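User: Teach me something about this protein's shape.
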Amino acid sequence: MTTTHSTPAKGQPEEQSVVKRKRLAMFRTIREAAIREFGKNGLSGTSTQALADAAGITKAQFHYYITSKEDLYREVLNYIIAEWSDMFFASATADDPATIIADYLRMKIRHSVEHPDMTRLFSLEMARGGIDLENHWADILGSAGKAIKMIGGWCEAGLIKPVDPVLFLMNMWAVSQYYAEYEVQARGLMGTAEGEPLDAERITQEAIELFLARAGLAG
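Assistant: First, the predicted structure itself:
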């Protein structure tokens, strides 16, 4: 995160280490608060006072650590993109599509269920035209491109039924992110009370069966 104070702390190494740990802990607290607030209200609908309140600090303390809400917003986007970027390639080997598809859906759905505000924040940014994603498009499209190429390779090798690799990947995104973007609707339809966790295992199993069946890998 961008800070307004970069001068190293004075004192012994042990003291510097304590100061560094406290600073990093405060950064994490501010980032988590920012994800919640930006995820609910977007960039324009979130004030620095709201961010400070959500982090449990004063506005003056907030500006001690963060130069502006815009810088914080971009830092949060960086964090979310880094969290998502390598999920597709996190499991198994490229010649085992069933495992890769299942593990990817499991990770994406659990992330959406456990961290819905990250998905909502990213969706709000996309809805306003991806203005603050300009510097990330190459990485985002590059990561997606590698996944699409892998899926296409499976089709060419006869490892899965022919599918449109682009739409197959985007449909996995749509299914997994629904439970964050439409959480209220999902709770209503699934009979899950506010404050109770959505049944990630139930959701995951249904999604895995759906996509493995489309790929000819079910049963």
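Now, about its shape. The mean pLDDT is 89. The chain has two domains: 13-74, 86-214. If you'd like, I can walk through any region in more detail.
User: That's plenty for now, thanks!
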